[in-house]
Design goal:
globular, four-stranded mixed sheet, 18% helix, two-stranded antiparallel ribbon, 2 helices, 103 residues, Signal recognition particle alu RNA binding heterodimer, srp9/1, alpha+beta
Length: 103
């Protein structure tokens, strides 16, 4: 992305998208701020699962007792995503990324 330190590839076999996400950009996406908050463990990994209905997946996670970092929303790059963080710090997203799906 222009003006970003995010590095990625969509040409790695077995993965539709693999990226290295700078912590400052993850903090902005998750909390709307540049610094990672002291109230959450600093993430060492992030994984996203593609789903057909992000709202339904987010609602199911909450119904099962998970606390979301943020509800489903559409990011500036057109991906719809809701995120949570595991107790050991892994960021987990349920998302729909339009360009990764066949038309």
């Amino acid at each position: 992305m222009e003006g970003s330190d995010y590095l990625f590839s969509e040409a790695i076999p077995g993965s539709k998208h693999f990226g290295v996400w700078p912590l400052e950009e993850a903090a902005q996406a998750c909390f709307g701020r540049q610094g990672w908050p002291d109230t959450h463990p600093v993430p060492q990994a992030s994984i996203e699962f593609e789903v057909d209905d992000v709202d339904a997946a987010a609602n199911e996670l909450e119904a099962r007792g998970y606390s979301l970092l943020h509800a489903a929303r559409t990011e500036p790059w057109s991906q719809t995503i809701a995120r949570l963080q595991t107790p050991d710090g892994v960021l987990v997203g349920v998302c729909f990324t339009p360009w990764l799906h066949d038309n």
